[in-house]
Design brief:
With about 80 residues, the chain is an alpha+beta fold. The chain has one domain (about 1-80). The chain has four helices and two strands, in the order ββαααα.
Amino acid sequence: MKEIIKLAFPFKVDGHEYAELTMRRPKVRDRLMVDKVDLSESESEIRYFSNLCEVSPDVIEELDWSDFVKLREQLQAFLVSRQAV
């Protein structure tokens, strides 16, 4: 499952304009991947979102803070949602 996050503040990185990001549901291996590397909490979070949105960390770093919060909210929605039985 993937969700499209519309950005309130689009931007460009390397000539590509980002007006939205697509985030996929996280897997355990995604968290393990960032936990294996010795990074600060902020850098770890950037790498995590970079992986889930399948973009480079540079893209996540250029997000407006309000759009970064949207990524956090979508992640939280993924973590609390359960598939219907």
